[in-house]
Amino acid sequence: MASAKQIKALLKSHMDGDDDRFFSVAMQVAAHEAKLGHGKLAEELRAMIDDAKERRGVSPPVPIGRPRGELANLLEASCPKARLGEMILNGKLADQIRRVIKEHRHAGRIVEHGLSPRRKLLLTGPPGTGKTMTASVLAGELGLSLFLVRLDGLITKYMGETAAKLRQVFEATSRTRGVYFFDEFDAIGSQRGIANDVGEIRRVLNSFLQMIEQDRSHSLVVAATNHPAILDPALFRRFDDVLRYELPDGMQVVKLLKVRLSDAVAKGVQWQKLAELAQGLSYAEITRACNEALKDALIHERPQVRETDIRTMLEERKSAAEKLG
Description:
The protein is of the alpha/beta class. The protein folds into 3 domains: 4-56, no CATH class; 69-244, Rossmann fold (3-Layer(aba) Sandwich); 250-324, Helicase, Ruva Protein, domain 3, CATH 1.10.8. The chain has helices spanning 4-16, 19-35, 39-56, 91-105, 107-112, 131-142, 151-154, 161-175, 186-189, 199-214, 233-236, 250-261, 271-278, 283-299, 307-324, and strands at residues 75-78, 120-124, 145-149, 178-182, 220-225, 241-244. The protein has a 6-stranded mixed sheet with strand order 1-3-4-5-2-6. Helix 8 runs parallel beside helix 10 (199-214). The protein is globular and about 70 Å long.
């Protein structure tokens, strides 16, 4: 017999339109019945769940739970359509992301055996290397809403207020399943002993450590930082997986350039030469250079993008990056 907690979870997930959560709890009920020796009932429940999943087909995005009240200042909701195939990544990183997606697609089977899918992810690496895109891909692939945690609304100067708002965010992860994305995470995750640190930031970090440790929701909590070296070491073991992003290598640059420009570029382009010029630029900077080359061709009514146009825009991006660096 399902426990009172499971019955309430089933009803709530049904009211929220959260099919994945509903199926996950239903599988827990089936597993519990199997442990009690009610094998026939457990098999019937599993068969009903499998049948429901097949009828549902490809899971549509769950309705966005629009943050209301004070949460509206803390969370920005969207429903991304991004897919993993749109990203250009090294093999190891792509495998890590693919593994997270697969674990959530088979969450019922995993939970049935007393385990849980990877839900707490830390993304580290230089700007423009795909961290924010990964959060969108996870939401898009799993049919979930993406909730961007707005640090400008979260962090305040008043003692205790930031921690209280942080608690509201973690309470939301239990009420509405989704991907909760903490960008520029070092703003709250910096080491507790670094110079110029203040007591309030230490309290916020301690609160985050406690809350993420206690989080038992079915949402994904994803944090991203460009500065992993300043993160408190205690954070790393609170995450299920750490994904490290790097600047693209030569082969990845060529692939990106071809994806962005191959249909519009003139013949005879020396892609490898362009890739050598683009070394040191991020995916975002290379994409921006490609877009600038496309716009320049449109403005001047040229039928195709020339290699010299691409080279000029890449050089501009490199010059800008060097000045900022």
